[in-house]
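Hey, resending since the last one bounced:
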Amino acid sequence: MTIKLIKNNFAKWITIYKSNIIIGFGEVKDLFLMLILLLLSFLFLLHKKQFISKFIILLVFITIGNIALVQL
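The structure tokens again:
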């Protein structure tokens, strides 16, 4: 019974969850800013392994994780 309900409503839940995450960031621009910052930090980490890039990656993951946890 539970699996049938999950299969029938999974697409609806995902769209609601995506919209809630965007609302949690405030705007789509903020979400894209975090994703771009995460991507650039990864590239900088691959190029030069410095503490600042690790720190930025950690902060972005904490921010995204916090918003995802609150939106559940």
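The mean pLDDT is 82.

Sorry for the duplicate.
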